[in-house]
Structures are given as C-alpha cells and as structure tokens.
Specification:
- This protein has a seven-stranded parallel sheet with strand order 3-2-1-4-5-6-11, sandwiched between helices. The chain has a two-stranded parallel ribbon with strand order 7-10.
- It is an alpha/beta fold.
- Helix 7 links the parallel strand 5 and strand 6.
- About 50% of the residues are buried.
- The chain contains 13 helices and 13 strands.
Length: about 350
Amino acid sequence: MISDLSIDRQKPKWIERNVLVTGGASFIGSHLVDKLVSLGSNVTVVDDLSSGNLENLLSSKSKIKFIKKDLEYIEKDEIRSIFRDQNIIFHMAAVHGGRGYIQNHPADVCSNLSIDHHVFEAAAENASSLENLVFASTACVYPPSMQDKLGSSYKLVERDSDPASLEGHMSADIEYGWGKLMSEMQLNAFIKQYGVKGCPVRFVTAYGPRENETHAIIALIYKAMRKMDPYKIWGDGQQERDFTYVQDIVDGTVLAAERIFDGTPINLGTGQKHRLIDVAKTIFNIVTWQPSSIKFEPSMPVGPLSRALDNTRAKDLLAWEPRFSLEEGLRRTVEWYRQKLKNTDYITKNLLLDRI
C-alpha cells in the first residue's frame, strides 16, 4: 500500500494558515482542498462551478468557506476583499478541458489571460499578508516541434520554455498553451514590479477520481465500462503521454508552495511515456473485459505525438517524485468510476468535446 506524504511532518507549515484555492471545486483543485484541510489550514474556495461541482468538496465541505464567483468578471473591490489576509494562494481556476475542448474552443480558453491577471493583481494588492502564490500551468507551454517524433526519448525540461527569457524565441501548444505561457510571464512581471512571491507548476496529463469524460483516461475508462465494441480510440493509438496521478500532482503543488518563491517553473510529471493503445489495454485488464475490435479515429483531436516532462528540478528543489505507477493509478481511478457510472448517462461524441 502506498502511503501519503507525512501529514505530521508538513502540518506545522500549514496549520491555521489562511489558504485560498481558486477553482477549488474542480478535479485537481478539490483534491488539493482535501489535502490542505487534512493539514489543518483555513481554506477558502472560489469557483464559478462552470467545470467543477460541489460534490467534489463533500468530504471537506464543513471545514471550508465556499464563494461562488467568476473571476473573469468580478469587481476589483470584491476580489480584493476575498484575497485579503490570505497567506497562500493556489490559483487553479481556468477555462479548460480535455484535448477536444481546448482545440475546439480557442477563443474561450483565451479568457484565462484576464482571469489570471485579476488574480495576480489582487495578490499584489494584498502582498503584505501573502507568502506565496502557486499558479497551475501546463505542459502545453512547451514547443510542439519538440514533441512531434514518436518513440523519442526526450523529456521536456523547464528551460525549453522559459518565461523569464523574453528576448528568445518561444512557442507553445495552441491557444491554451500560449495563454498559460503568457500568464507565467504575467506572474514574473508581478514578482519583479510588486514583489509578489510565486511559482508556476506545470502539470501533464493528470488523471484520477473526479476527472470527467472530456479527458483521455476517463474517456477510455468510460468506453471500457460501457463495453463499447468496436472500442474507439482517438488518433492511431500510438501517441505517447506522461500520465500523472492526481495525488502526485497535489503533493508536488503543496511542496512548491513551501519552497519556490521566485517564479521558477516546476515540472510535475513522471518522466515516462505510455502509448495510448497500451493504456487502453491496461484498462481492459483492470475491468476484465476485452473488445472484439478497436476502431481508431485519426480525424479526432490528439495533440502532440510524444510528450513527457523531465522532473529533475522537482526532485532537486522539492524533494518530490511521483509515487503512483500508472497501473496503480488506473486501478484507483477505475474503482472510483465504477461508483460514478451508476449515475452516468451515455456520453455522446459532442459531449466528449465539451466540458461536462
């Protein structure tokens, strides 16, 4: 049995700290909230519930303060009041979804630039109490040209996309990636001009309980649990990804809040690549079902062909490394999804391209 990071060791740093989590009712955000509550923090969640839901917060509901607000349109006085006296901010809120969503909603995801600016501005105005701001970034900030060769052993390192190097050439993965990269630059600007402390953490293909069917792993599990035959896989199944279990993401994010204050970006990934077809086959074994045939759908969104993150910096600066193997993470996710499926209607292709 894999044990959690030592709660007793971390508690002195977090007990009775005022912690704000934007997007805290979402997939990753809600797991982060649970972790912070277990550490004894006074947690405030701000979420507009556009992609998150209150069910994700059931285990922590009585111990948190919840504020329903859209951070894109919030008034300055209101956001300033919400952020007042907060010691740590985890900025997880974003217009986001799986590959289908971000590729088919390019204008919508550009809203993240204004959401992030409002958060950074409010943090700067409350800098006297703020000890750190952790920004949820993404592997999409990296150049697609570095991820276009199947079978490549290369792992993306933070310097491949350096938001502090404004005179160099940069590239990012579609509008969603560009928006996150620009917001890393925004965070650096607030650090330089206003003395805000902050750290961007770059997530890659996170999965686990509470994720929805717009994301690859849950979509694959959904299709297997529904016994879809022929079983459909977007692309040709050869695309490679670094799949990171949500608890590993949360542990690394909390450690980043404790240790990185100068805008240094941190990769949170396993550093291992898995082909989508192999992930599907592992899921078949876990659910003890096999389709008679697999139908590949090359016309559907797939993103870069080969992506994994080098986690050397996380190991060196955070003493962090992933604890969950892909098979262990998939087993836990399938176990959760068995319960969820009882209340899940059939998912259409259109819904797989949207936020559910």
